[in-house]
Amino acid sequence: QDAIDRKEKRSETFKTAVHGLETGTSALKVEELGRRAPQWVRDNLVTMCMRCKEPFNAIMRRRHHCRACGYVVCARCSDYKAELQYDGNRLNRVCQECYIFLTGHVVLEDREGKHKGILEKGAAEISGRSLLCSSLQLLDKNGKGGTRGWFVIPQDDPLVLYIYAAPQDVRAHTSIPLLGYQVKDLPQSDSRHLFQLVQSRQVYTFVADTEELKQRWMRAMARSAAGITLSEEEEEDADS
């Protein structure tokens, strides 16, 4: 009975897991798992395993694709084989979640019960219901180098900026609580569209790809810094 309950729980969570690997991608329905070839998530869209969230590296943790759901996973999380109907019922490499769903077998290791931390929100998941999301560059303290990543202000956590290394990562590498910050415009430098978040001695300098995108981010961050939790459209509707 415990095995049945676990499998049913996995089935429900899988409906979310396989729904829309990225915006604009046709969703793989749960009943089609193993019956239809999935659309693979591209390697360059993730920097960590989409199951255990461990970062990839060239030597010890290589990328693999689950042949059932298309997720990019590490060797440990894809060390399972299941028969896939779309491949003539031949055994294929699959991730742990797909293995449990397709075979009904219970795996002793179970990470499902772990509490989802503040950073453990998938980029694709929260980007689909965000106040604003896009690629930005966050400069280092000397203003010369920096890290390019995927930045999101989610609707359900509108006072926090989440920073991902890639738009399909399943865990943010850091977050910035925006409340109380000041948003500062900077003059264009070397065709770079610069702006800052400033609070006391803490300063973050960002580079947007266009002036229009910069202005959108400045408005969104200023609203979050002021504690405004509604989008501009929602606030206009409320006023009317």
UniProtKB/TrEMBL annotation:
<dbReference type="InterPro" id="IPR000306">
    <property type="entry name" value="Znf_FYVE"/>
</dbReference>
<dbReference type="InterPro" id="IPR017455">
    <property type="entry name" value="Znf_FYVE-rel"/>
</dbReference>
<dbReference type="GO" id="GO:0005085">
    <property type="term" value="F:guanyl-nucleotide exchange factor activity"/>
</dbReference>
<protein>
    <submittedName>
        <fullName>FGD2 protein</fullName>
    </submittedName>
</protein>
<keyword id="KW-0479">Metal-binding</keyword>
<dbReference type="GO" id="GO:0046847">
    <property type="term" value="P:filopodium assembly"/>
</dbReference>
<dbReference type="InterPro" id="IPR011993">
    <property type="entry name" value="PH-like_dom_sf"/>
</dbReference>
<dbReference type="InterPro" id="IPR001849">
    <property type="entry name" value="PH_domain"/>
</dbReference>
<keyword id="KW-0863">Zinc-finger</keyword>
<dbReference type="GO" id="GO:0005856">
    <property type="term" value="C:cytoskeleton"/>
</dbReference>
<feature type="domain" description="PH">
    <location>
        <begin position="129"/>
        <end position="226"/>
    </location>
</feature>
<keyword id="KW-0344">Guanine-nucleotide releasing factor</keyword>
<dbReference type="GO" id="GO:0007010">
    <property type="term" value="P:cytoskeleton organization"/>
</dbReference>
<keyword id="KW-0677">Repeat</keyword>
<dbReference type="Pfam" id="PF01363">
    <property type="entry name" value="FYVE"/>
</dbReference>
<keyword id="KW-0862">Zinc</keyword>
<dbReference type="InterPro" id="IPR051092">
    <property type="entry name" value="FYVE_RhoGEF_PH"/>
</dbReference>
<dbReference type="InterPro" id="IPR035941">
    <property type="entry name" value="FGD1-4_PH2"/>
</dbReference>
<dbReference type="InterPro" id="IPR011011">
    <property type="entry name" value="Znf_FYVE_PHD"/>
</dbReference>
<keyword id="KW-0963">Cytoplasm</keyword>
<feature type="domain" description="FYVE-type">
    <location>
        <begin position="43"/>
        <end position="103"/>
    </location>
</feature>
<dbReference type="GO" id="GO:0008270">
    <property type="term" value="F:zinc ion binding"/>
</dbReference>
<dbReference type="GO" id="GO:0005737">
    <property type="term" value="C:cytoplasm"/>
</dbReference>
<keyword id="KW-0206">Cytoskeleton</keyword>
<keyword id="KW-0597">Phosphoprotein</keyword>
<dbReference type="Pfam" id="PF00169">
    <property type="entry name" value="PH"/>
</dbReference>
<dbReference type="InterPro" id="IPR013083">
    <property type="entry name" value="Znf_RING/FYVE/PHD"/>
</dbReference>
